[in-house]
UniProtKB/TrEMBL annotation:
Renumbered residue ranges of the record's region Disordered: 1-21
Protein name per its UniProtKB record: Uncharacterized protein
Length: 153
């Protein structure tokens, strides 16, 4: 091979990509291991929403009522969690006794189930600067305010 032939080969070859780092590298490694075992990559977990269960605020006063609205096959579990004032960047370790307003009941449902609730009812975020402390994180809660009118002709 002459020097001119070598130059042509290097010009035509695609640029090398830098190796993946961080989360993309972990996901690529995970997918490669699953493929080597003959398995398809597992789907990511579905996003979940928290819905307020209350007889005072909103129309969802029980888990059974939420089950009807979301067309769920099983009754959702009701959890009691602290509801507290939370400002972004503060209190990463959880609520303190002085900022906890009260305990509230919530149900944890999937995003697709929440979509069914949105089709039938008006849903808004519950509280202004208040959030719940759930599974080591601060999260917002949705409240179902009322049903939408359905005109049948």
């Amino acid at each position: 091979m002459t020097e001119s032939d070598e130059g042509k080969q290097t010009l035509g070859c695609p640029a090398r990509q830098p190796p993946l780092r961080g989360f993309p590298a972990k996901m690529a490694d995970y997918a490669a291991k699953r493929a080597a075992l003959g398995r398809s990559p597992s789907p990511p977990p579905e996003i979940r929403c928290k819905v307020l269960i209350s007889s005072e605020d909103g129309i969802v006063f029980s888990a059974g009522r939420l089950q009807e609205l979301a067309e769920m096959p099983e009754l959702p579990e009701v959890l009691e969690v602290p509801f507290a004032k939370h400002f972004a960047g503060s209190q990463p370790e959880g609520p303190t006794s002085k900022n906890t307003i009260r305990k509230i009941c919530i149900c944890d449902i999937t995003l697709s189930e929440m979509g069914l609730v949105h089709e039938k009812a008006y849903v808004e975020r519950y509280g202004d600067m208040e959030c719940i402390w759930y599974q080591g994180r601060w999260l917002n809660v949705d409240v179902v305010l009322g049903l939408k009118r359905v005109l049948i002709s």
